[in-house]
Write a structure and sequence with these properties.
Elements lengths: L4 E3 L2 H11 L1 H4 L15 E5 L2 H11 L3 E5 L14 H9 L2 E4 L5 H9 L4 E4 L7 E10 L21 E6 L7 H18 L4 H25 L7 E4 L5 H6 L3 E4 L11 H14 L3 E4 L6 H10 L2 E4 L15 H16 L3
Parallel strand pairs: 2-3, 2-4, 4-5, 8-9, 10-11
Antiparallel strand pairs: 1-6, 6-7
Helix pairs in contact: 3-6, 3-7, 6-7, 7-11
Length: about 325
């Protein structure tokens, strides 16, 4: 079964990593520690996965605010004048370029010294949208858990880099390490604390990766259907295949041909469940499930924590996702 991925060249990643931390290089050890009147580093996070990193790594030495409110769908966030002013008054911004265009623009136009782009701290890959003329699949032998799928062919076209890196615990840990270094450079007085907190978080994320690898190793099927293409990195990591109703845009509408193709695929691959999300409408997922006589369940992209979330933080919600996947895929 295909994982629709195209690697962004290593040279591009290297350049992106340099850009992610470029504003930090200008800071000397004398002027780098920009902190508020409480002696804390003021950090603005673009949305929950960035907020979680900032809080876990910064601990008591940072003051974290987020631009995306709990329950707000982050992809089309509009930045207010108040939030732009907040950015200017902060010491650092932690964001994921490519996910929220308005955030990218606001941070790019700000005078912040420390701009940390999570997308430049790990490897991004191209998403390829289903339902079009190109066929094929590129094998990636460097995946820790392998990438073994059968030979199904799917038509697809490129839709751009997939920003959902936090849903792969391994990539998320890579980002955490980069954020820890950036915090230490911006606030060297607390470097030891940031390093200690980063190490603890990376250990936690590696443990989560091990849980997913073990929990999804032996399953009856390797295919799952989601509302939008948020789980491609997770699928690739654990030798699964995500089939999304829409592409990277959670508000997109599927074509009639796409719906028919998903119905046929579900029957052929033994799919039992159509997954929907907590922050977007479940109407399309439930319609497809009803027509194909499938179950529905929640697979949370962890873009925000609300009272509907199956857990109080990133790790808890990811463990709930693992449980849901094991049930849907027939884990043994």
């Amino acid at each position: 079964m295909n994982v629709r991925r195209r690697l962004i060249p290593t040279s591009a990643l290297t350049a992106a990593t340099a850009l992610a931390l470029v504003s930090l290089s200008a800071c000397s050890s004398d002027d780098a520690a920009a902190t508020n009147n409480k002696g804390k580093l003021d950090v603005v996070a673009s949305f929950y996965p960035m907020q979680y990193l900032a809080e876990q790594i910064g601990g008591k030495h940072v003051e974290v605010t987020t631009l995306t409110e709990p329950g707000q769908e982050p992809h089309d966030l509009e930045i207010s004048a108040k939030q732009r002013a907040q950015l200017e008054e902060s010491d650092a911004a932690l964001y994921l370029k490519g996910l929220q265009p308005n955030v990218d623009e606001a941070i790019g136009q700000s005078d912040l010294k420390t701009k940390i782009d999570a997308a430049g701290l790990t490897r991004l890959e191209k998403h390829e949208e289903e339902g079009h003329g190109e066929k094929g699949h590129e094998e990636h032998g460097d995946d820790e858990h392998g990438d073994e799928h059968d030979g199904h062919e799917h038509g697809h076209e490129h839709e751009g880099p997939d920003p959902h890196i936090w849903l792969d615990p391994v990539r998320y840990a890579e980002v955490a390490e980069g954020v820890g270094k950036a915090f230490a450079k911006a606030d060297p007085d607390h470097k030891a604390a940031y390093e200690k907190n980063t190490a603890a978080l990376v250990k936690k994320l590696k443990g989560l990766d091990a849980e997913f690898a073990k929990g999804l190793k032996n399953t009856r099927t390797k295919v799952f259907i989601t509302t939008h293409a948020a789980f491609g990195y997770l699928a690739e990591r654990y030798s699964l295949t995500e089939e999304s109703i829409t592409g990277l845009d959670p508000e997109g509408e599927p074509s009639a041909n796409r719906v028919k193709a998903l119905q046929k695929m579900a029957e052929a691959d033994g799919v039992t469940t159509v997954f929907h999300e907590t922050l977007v409408s479940d109407k399309t997922a439930k319609t497809l499930a009803s027509d194909a006589k499938l179950k529905t369940d929640v697979l949370d992209p962890v873009e925000g924590i609300t009272e509907k979330s199956r857990g109080d933080d990133y790790v808890q919600v990811m463990r709930s996702n693992l449980k849901a996947l094991r049930t849907a895929l027939g884990a043994r």
